[in-house]
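Async update (no meeting this week)

Hi team, since we skipped the sync, here's where things stand on the single-chain job. The sequence we agreed to prioritize is pasted below, unchanged from the tracker. I ran it this morning and attached the output directly underneath so nobody has to dig for it. Comments welcome in thread, and please keep replies under the output.
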Amino acid sequence: MNARTEIERILKLSPVMPVVVIEDPAVAPDLARALWRGGLRAIEVTLRTPAALQAIEAIARDVPEIAVGAGTVLAVDDLHAAVNAGAAFAISPGTTAALVEAGAHSAIPYLPAVATASELMLGLAHGYHCFKFFPAALAGGPPMLKAFAGPFPQARFCPTGGITPETQRTYLNLPNVLCVGGSWLAPADVVAARDWTRIEALAAAAARA
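Output:
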């Protein structure tokens, strides 16, 4: 199975992929376990904090049953760091020529992001068929994804950004959507309180989406 096929498999693991910001790597395994118990099988740890790479390492080591990915990959160096941390996949909030080229040869599956038809065409030209659609709500939401389906029937998406439990189903009902990214599954105050029961309940609700 090649990397571009593998990213589709990962995106199909759960209807909602938690998008999390981790300040303390010590909580990362417990957070991942709570999400797993709730029924979610993949997690995106954003590279927005100094603790992010350590958190990815901890989850990959201690909770191997969940696929942990690195999010907010902004440069080729970030992609390399994600690989070295043991990430199972990597995701960007946008698309650059350098990243789509590096991602094509990466040791782990890479998911570029698009918000326009031109960005989508760039990714398709490099052989990608799965994309993050970001920021989903601001970039046109379900109507934009429906519009993409006509000229780009081969493209599949993980919309992220501004999606809520109330709107997730409007995305998931679209045939070109594999999953959605959700930042509501690990609220900062709940993680800080280490309320894993609450995290598990949020995950369980998302897994039923």
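Quick observations from my side:
Strands lie at 16-20, 42-46, 67-71, 89-91, 110-111, 113-114, 130-133, 156-159, 180-182.
The chain has one domain: 3-203.
Reply here if anything looks off.
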